[in-house]
Amino acid sequence: MFAVNGSSAAFPVHPGEILGEELTARGLSGREFAKMAGLQPTHLSAIIHGSRNITPAVADKLASALEGISADFWLGLQKRFNTEKNRRSMGTSRYVSGYDPFQSTRAAAMLGEPEVEYGKKQEIRISIPSADFTLLKLLATKMNWEVLV
User: Fold this and answer.
1) Using N-to-C axis directions, what is the helix angle for 15-25 and 41-48, rounded to 10°?
2) Residue pLDDT, tens place only, 17-74
3) What is the pTM of this model?
4) Which of 14, 15, 58, 113 is in Cβ range 3.0-4.6 Å of 108 for a Cys bridge?
5) Among 12, 143, 136, CA closest to 78
6) Would you say 48 and 20 are in contact if contact means Cβ atoms under 8 Å apart?
7) DSSP conformation letters of the chain
8) List of long-range contacts for 90-96, beta carbons under 8 Å, 24+ apart
């Protein structure tokens, strides 16, 4: 379970940044890890710096070289990043304006989902495979979330 502290990142974190932090936490250099994962060092560097995406093939290589972190986790991070990047580039909003130009209603609220009050601590309960917990804690720290386990 995570509590979102009311602040969201200005832009979603590229999964390569999370990968770089994971390698640092494990004391691995990029060259060492690239060799372990069967990747070219330049390819790995491009991923870590956010200029290349994590593909299904790369996710499988990462999962085999990083014990405890699944390929699905990496692909989920990449999908979230891509979705948010596309949403922002198209100028779409998570808000839906009604007839009153001064009142915006979250699209989620229109679908019957609970309204989120920004600036207040929100609890989000999620279930994840135990193999992904370590990296999810790292992501939570990066996003300034509190892990309440």
Assistant:
1) 110
2) 999 999 999 999 999 999 999 999 999 999 999 999 999 999 999 999 999 999 999 9
3) 0.57
4) 113
5) 12
6) yes
7) -EEE-S---SSPPPHHHHHHHHHHHTT--HHHHHHHHT--HHHHHHHHTTSS---HHHHHHHHHHSTT--HHHHHHHHHHHHHHHHHHHTT--SEEE-SSTT-EEEHHHHTTPPPP-TTS-EEE-----GGGHHHHHHHHHHTTEEE--
8) none
